[in-house]
Amino acid sequence: MNVNSTGDPRTRWRFRHALSACRRFAVGLRSRLTSERGQALLEFAFLLPILLVFLLSLVDFGIALDRREVIQHAVREGARQGSIGLSEAQITDVVVDQSQGVLTVADISICYAPGPGGAPAGFAGSAVRVSATLTYKFSMGSGELLGAFGVAPISIDMTPSAEARMETSVTGVTPC
Prior knowledge:
alpha+beta; three-stranded antiparallel sheet; two-stranded antiparallel sheet; 4 helices; 5 strands; 52% helix
C-alpha cells in the first residue's frame, strides 16, 4: 500500500509526522552519543585540586609576607627604644608587644656593637642591634593539601634585624 499516492490525507500526515519524529530521534541520539558536555566537567574535576593548592599557597605566601612585615616593624621599634636607653628586658617587652603575638621572648636577641671612632659597646655613639627569628610554616595550600599528596610542607625562615645609634649610655650590655 502506497500511502503517498492514495488514502486519507490524515494518514499521510501521520506517516510523515512519524517519519520526521524518527529522524529527529535518530539525530538526537547520535548527537547525545557524540556529545562532549560531560568532558568539561570531568576536566574541571581533575584541575580543581591543582587550582586550590595554587590559590591557597598564594594566600599562605601573602600571610607569610605580612608576618615578615610585622616582625620587621617590631624589631625596628625595639632598636629605636633601645637607642634611648631602655634595658634589654624592656626592649624585649616592646618587641613582643609590637609583634602582634607572632614573637615570643625566646625569638628575640639583643646585642650592642661598638660605635665608630672606638666608642665602646653600650656607650653613646655605639649601636644597639635587635634581631628576631621566626620560622613560618605554610598551613593552608602547601601544608595540608600537599601533605595529602606526600609532599613535605613548605616553611620560610625569617630573621629580620634592626640597628640604631645609642643616644645615651647603658651599663651591663651584651656585646655583638
